[in-house]
Specification:
4 copies of one chain form a homotetramer. Chain A is of the alpha/beta class. Chain A contains 12 helices and 14 strands. At the B-C interface, loops of B face loops of C.
């Protein structure tokens, strides 16, 4: 079987690099094109990463393979959809707003950018939760007259939260969620991202726009596709959160208080998470972990440094599941989710895998 | 006026060192004795701090003064109450359980240890909040037949939370609180405290016993002395929290969700905190800050590194006051409180100052 | 006596903020003007610090005083020399190259920028070492036809090294120095400075241009003014160094190997540093510390976090003085110097104080 | 072919855990026994790792496999040499002094402990450098009347230094080395290891005994076995170093100044390192990396976080190779070496592999 030929736009940034790492040795997707800003066009990828002072700006632990290093970078504006089967997008929101629709006329665009997340005809796919939202893509194509489509990933802070809520909703219902995040600095990228002087020996209690994203996206992800396939009805869970930044490189930690729809015991809550298999189509995808959620008994877990990389960063680790005495049917727990793997590039690759399994891609 | 002669027990540990720094140049308390374990007895304080490998284990930024460095350390067991007017205690809970009652037979003991916090006849004093609890000391003396008494400080995580709740209770009432703490590592001390490998690039989601302390102590601090002065009626606020440890040296950050007793606006909540002056007797104490609470407009504040040391670490910094859509009359905010100054040694000195102003000390 | 009226150019950056903190309550210098980029002109200083997302970008622990917060910022280009007695400069090198000479035509400019450090008629003043270089200013004025002058500060990494070498040169002579620095991130400023992702759990082994600066400046600082006052003869010490960046906020640590001009014992080397008083004119300046060098006996010192702020950051802390078996008359030691206080803004203020004592300023 | 049955003594500590990770799926060594202190004896390994407060003290990122988790731990004192083909030792030096000789009477003991490193009849094996030292084991067996032997690994700070010196000695000779280390905290283990409060925002300039170890071991490792095989003649390179601790989890960084035996260019020095293949017997061992040394052109490398894990942590990364103007034929460079992989457990496994290839093991 011929592999799907993918172009990656925004290839030189930190998010783009994570796509490159995630697509290495992929069974059916081939990284066939790298696009970046006009300034990088015509250079090899390795040259495009080199800064004025001689640094090769490749920042992830998996070394850059020689084959990718030698690929010629094209300008995002010059990408020809006809040369590719799909596009992955790791550009900033403002660039995405221009570039993604142009490509989506012809090919699917799976994106880490937020530009189109809140459009009515755009699903926010987390395969084990809402594979059933994928057909909204047909509506999007119809409305916009596109052959392709745009499928953006949720905000990285939303992903782990939504995954842990999904089994609770299925078993008990969830009425409300209050969450405080302790987020890693990698999510802010490197231009300039979080400055060292701001985060060493410190906590930053505010991440602009983050809380609104989590509150809106969680409801959308956990919602339902209307019977006519024309739009999503958001879930009626109420969500309130405070998002902070801590001195952690990778892996978002979230302290969650949740009000269930009915009485339950700690054991039942733990069991619901442990037994949750997610939607069937999501289970055997190449990037899927053996379990979507791992619940620790050790009260000192999860910890971002120890748990973020389990199963390639595709797992959500949970611990400290306890009753909460304040909320109705209240429980509290802590989760760790890898913000740049499951929460970004690898989550997008997982979504592409699912869309293909659903016959919506390639 | 002669100064009160204080003995410090547990003088060599991190908490003890903070008492020494806090009592430097105190207007009416003189550090007249230093006590530690029998192993240190007979040495000068500087010698007692020296470890086998040549390190002088003085860990706070204010340099050790030569006069304290040269004081002879006595064994905690050998402290004679008659030589002193009061004792400050910075020992561990198990040592406190033996040592503090022996001294309290004759002199007041103001303590950072948790050993007696939960006894019925023991107040948990935060001067601006509950100066009115101080007379419970009379009941304690009567019941136990002591001339002195034990006045323990609350847990450091409770202090900042209780201070920010106090003005809300006064103006609006508070029904419930959900709090997630991001705590500094200094609170764990140095024996061994938090290990570097555990906290660098990491979050530890569990601090044994901490959450229970915060939940119980908050209700006690905010409660009311019964008319007959025999005990405290805890406040009926419901408190639920998750306490975590982050890579911060000093200063606890807390993300608070609170349900008020009646409707309010963000402006009213901010105003309540800004205008709060605390109980009158607390206002002009030598260690009191000009304001108990500082509310930031800058959404990136408070930050522990920038805000912990304001007004000598006696201030509580608040920011990000917003409405919360989940709780009834819900609001959310972030606070920073200095865990080893207002939250421990300096809070104890402040309490001593208040007790003297109330005629209960010396 | 009227205070000298100083204008600060580059007032909004991190270096500028340190000048503001350092000049607070100065006995004879008044901060009379604040200048920054045209974008800030006309705003109050507090407004100029406010970023688009609502942050007040004041990053040092001393709070911004209301009087400075309310000062109107002028554009660097619009500063009128006639309105001031001297200028302090905290601008980047390229801006300094334009702005400093314009002001120096009329008034003295004491600068933290590197632009003019290597000019023949420009001294690099560290008061206790080379007060005798100050008259080179007369040559500078003569050559350039200026009424004022430019006196730049050395690179922050050079300062601590030069201070510890000075007493060794006086007593024993110094032939060669090999130094490895472990530098704090504050030196890189905030635009963007060192990125959090680059420094957390990491060391960066390269700081562009830093090593060359240290090698050249050390020789210049320790050199001698020619008898005719026309230029400096650099010291013939050979200097080789490797400069690295570590996860420290403030305070450069340097590991030094030094070859003395004659035999000495560890005791003699320690004594030379401890007894060193520096040039007489430098000793009683308002910003001068009681000792220029503190030598620790504790082998675990100096440490940047514990030692950087001693005596207001104006002291250089030394420890681990030992013989080295490789170099001729070899010794090795570790030093800590505050890079943004003695090594930048406060060092510049100290230089201004000395120049005034020498009759060269105001 | 039957696998060699190995017992690991000191299995529960951090070093022991690294042996367990390193031996996972080993082609010819089977982890057949786990030994620890009497307190752990009789428990499963997972139980032995559980602390009083419920923590499972497994601290490395590779998850603990169920098969190891279920193994019964035996007391170090109860280990029967006859049950095993070899022993790996990860105990502290004082325990090693008792336990290792008892086992070495019958079986080879490959050890990370320092207890026997400095004995005349004990080699310090780094396979690519000094495979030729291995026959000293015969002398050891003869002298001590043992059927087994003790082969300790060098100190982790020595390993990277010696590896980078080896090709320089071969091509140019090396007369002297001055080195400053910036060491990771993992080397100190967890009992208590480096305390968080000591290392956050800090550098510790002293690691007890470390410098002496590096100076003596480097000469021994690079020395030559005397023709009669009875002892090693240390290399006459002079070594002087300063060892510091920085806020890095894993990976020692070292700033090296070296005086070569003859003139060379930077290109030749780089080439010598890049082309160095090490002793033939070391090249194809299962744990050997494709190259022993990687020399970066990017001046911002090596960095511990980015380079420590290359080739499973068995590679030494070098960068910033430059001439040094102070030493005779002087050069300087920076290296990063993984202190707990190549520098400890995995280095010991590599040595075992080599000894087997040499017919000295099993």
């Amino acid at each position: 079987m011929a592999k799907l030929r993918a172009v990656l736009i925004g290839a030189t940034g930190l998010a783009g690099q994570q796509f490159i790492a995630g697509l290495k040795n992929h069974p059916f997707i081939e990284l066939a094109g790298l696009a970046a800003s006009p300034r990088s066009a015509g250079k090899t990828y390795a040259e495009a990463l080199r800064t004025a002072n001689g640094m090769t700006a490749w920042f992830i632990s998996e070394p850059l393979s020689p084959s990718v290093a030698g690929m010629k970078v094209i300008s995002g504006d010059a990408v020809q959809a006809k040369d590719f089967d799909l596009a992955f997008s790791a550009v900033e929101a403002d660039v995405a707003r221009e570039l993604e629709p142009r490509l989506a006329r012809d090919i699917p665009v799976i994106s880490a950018a937020s530009a189109f997340r809140y459009d009515d005809d755009v699903p926010l796919l987390i395969p084990p939760i809402n594979a059933a939202h994928a057909p909204l893509i047909r509506e999007q194509q119809k409305r916009r007259g596109w052959k392709g489509f745009i499928a953006p990933m949720p905000n990285c802070t939303t992903t782990g939260l939504a995954i842990t809520l999904a089994p609770l909703i299925e078993r008990f219902g969830v009425k409300a969620v209050l969450m405080t995040s302790l987020q890693a600095i990698s999510g802010a990228g490197r231009s300039p991202g979080v400055i060292g002087m701001d985060i060493l020996d410190n906590v930053i209690p505010y991440i602009p726009k983050e809380e609104g994203k989590v509150e809106v996206e969680t409801k959308k992800i956990l919602g339902a596709l209307r019977p006519d396939g024309s739009a999503l009805s958001p879930h009626d869970v109420r969500v309130s959160c405070t998002c902070t930044r801590v001195a952690v490189l990778e892996g978002h930690t979230e302290s969650v208080f949740v009000s269930l729809g009915k009485k339950a015991s700690v054991e039942e809550v733990v069991q619901a998470m442990r037994e949750w298999k997610g939607v069937e189509v999501s289970r055997d995808l190449p990037s899927a972990p053996p379990h979507w959620i791992h619940v620790h008994d050790d009260p000192f877990r999860p910890q971002p440094r120890l748990d973020r990389d389990v199963y390639g960063g595709m797992n959500t680790s949970v611990g400290r599941v306890r009753e909460d005495g304040v909320l109705e049917n209240g429980f509290k727990y802590v989760l760790v989710s890898h913000n740049t793997k499951m929460g970004a590039a690898c989550g997008a690759i997982l979504a592409a895998e699912m869309l293909r399994a659903q016959g919506l891609l390639g």
